[in-house]
Design goal:
binds S-adenosylmethionine; single chain; 450 residues; alpha/beta; TIM Barrel; binds iron/sulfur cluster; 48% helix; 20 helices
Length: 450
């Protein structure tokens, strides 16, 4: 199983020296992506090696067009819910690492996790990402299973995803069985010497165990997996090429690859050992990375977290991103008390409502929809619907219905007015019974979706 046929096929030298980045070649690559085709590694290399500023402008705009062909205007919103910061690993970059002696440690009780989820549901969230450190005894599968079941039973949260340490196939089966939609895990770095340096002790020091986590998750029944590299640990071109190579290997083996790609970028963290990485990624390169993921794998969701500052996040919404977290806290019980050690510093501190208002003012469509995972539109089925440019029809209608609910239940007067205008316009355009469903929502019916 180790390595299982996957070797990062690109090296920095190969990317930078021998790749054809003539305008005509780049335009061919962009045209292929606009036809919803997954790019091959030579084409990805052309984008990674591209330097010309005008061509980059065209590339970023094509990325927006590809996103809109797949997902339309909709931007999905969610929040992370941190369960524990007690960790048996010593990842040098993370505030939760075992070597951070100053950390205030906390694992939420099942009841506290439910309280946090209730609070978030009261703010309008329907989708949460559970985030756990790696601690088999305190935050292992027995605990996660209990938390997931309790949140579904006691709150209005409709879908839970999980970012947790790699597991055995047996444990992944339990995770899937508990009702988790997407299993997410970042390789952090594909560069083995860097990986070894960054993860000196603990279970995470096993590179291959992490590399093969997605195969085990898929074997256990997960059809939606989320992947990423932690940008800032090693050369971004190499890492982005390797992540796309890994994704393509999953596609050829299973018929589907990652459901989402995330772009976590190294942030300052209390207790981190990494203060000044020579591989830090600039904002301009960060935008390129978002565009390259979008163009290389047109069907995937590209997720931007609140690590990034507000202005940059707003720009990325028009460059190819399709999902963003909002109003996040990165410490366990951060929503209720804001006291324990956080994983890293937040760049965008706006709450859900402010971000919804901003998305609307950018001419985009905020969405609190959770339908696909619950209606079986996952894995290969999802990929075909997305590449066939059909998924956006589901997305648009469900976004509108989710906003109508949000408007009825949570919005302040100011955002209500903004949403009323948006929904009136949708109502006028719609020829498919929106009136009846709006009335049902006004009467108190919830979770109407297609
Ligand atoms: N503990 C599990 C693990 O490491 O896979 C899952 C959760 S971990 C809390 C989520 C992710 O946060 C990590 O995979 C890493 O990419 C990211 N992360 C850790 N420290 C960070 C930092 N200082 N800045 C930005 N992202 C960070
Ligand atoms: Fe623990 Fe994850 Fe942080 Fe590493 S990144 S120290 S495994 S919480």
């Amino acid at each position: 199983m180790v390595g299982a046929g996957f070797k990062p096929a690109l090296t920095k030298a190969l990317i930078m020296k021998h790749i054809n980045t003539d305008p005509s070649r780049i335009k061919e690559v962009l045209a292929k992506s606009l036809e919803m085709q997954v790019l091959n590694l030579t084409e990805v290399s052309a984008l990674l090696a591209l330097e010309d500023k005008d061509l980059w402008m065209e590339t970023l705009d094509t990325s927006r067009r590809v996103k809109e062909k797949v997902y339309g205007k909709r931007i999905v919103l969610f929040a992370p819910l941190y369960l524990s910061n007690e960790c048996t690993n010593d990842c040098l970059y993370c505030g939760f690492r075992t070597g951070n002696r100053d950390a205030r440690r906390k694992t939420l009780s099942v009841d506290e996790a439910v309280q946090e989820a209730k609070l978030l549901s009261g703010r309008g969230y329907k989708r949460l990402l559970l985030v756990a450190s790696e601690h088999t005894k305190l935050a292992g599968i027995d605990y996660i299973e209990k938390v997931v079941r309790a949140i579904y039973e006691n709150t209005d949260i409709r879908i839970l995803h999980a970012n947790a340490a790699p597991m055995s196939v047996e444990d992944f089966k339990r995770l899937k069985g508990s009702g988790i939609g997407v299993y997410q895990c970042f390789q952090e770095t594909y560069h083995i010497p860097t990986y070894r340096h960054m993860h000196p002790t603990g279970p995470k020091s096993d590179y291959a165990w992490r590399l093969n986590a997605m195969d085990r998750a898929i074997e256990a029944g997960f059809e939606d997996v989320g992947m990423g590299v932690l940008l800032g640990l090693y050369d971004w071109r190499w890492e982005v090429g390797a992540l796309i190579a890994h994704s393509k290997r999953l596609i050829s083996k299973y018929g589907f690859g990652p459901h989402t790609l995330s772009v976590p970028r190294l942030q300052p963290a209390q207790g981190s050992q990494i203060t000044n990485s020579r591989y830090m990624v600039s904002d301009d390169d960060f935008k390129k990375i978002v565009a390259i993921y979008r163009l290389a794998l047109p069907y995937v969701g590209v997720v931007i977290s609140t690590r990034e500052p507000a202005g940059l996040r707003d720009e990325l919404l028009s460059i190819g991103a399709s999902q963003i977290s909002a109003g996040s806290k990165t410490s366990p019980s951060g929503y209720l008390h804001d006291g324990d050690t956080e994983q890293f510093e937040i760049g965008d501190t706006r709450g859900l409502e402010e971000i919804i208002g901003r998305i609307v003012s950018l001419g985009l469509m905020p969405s609190l929809c959770t339908a696909c995972y619950r209606e079986g539109r996952s894995g290969e089925t999802f990929r075909h619907l997305a590449e066939g440019e059909t998924i956006k029809n589901f997305c648009h209608e469900n976004a509108v219905l989710s906003l109508k609910e949000y408007m009825e239940d949570c919005a302040s007067d100011e955002v209500k007015e903004q949403l009323r205008k948006l929904l009136d316009a949708e109502f006028t355009k719609s020829a498919n019974g929106l009136a009846e469903r709006f009335k049902l929502i006004e009467k108190g019916k919830r979770d109407i979706h297609i």
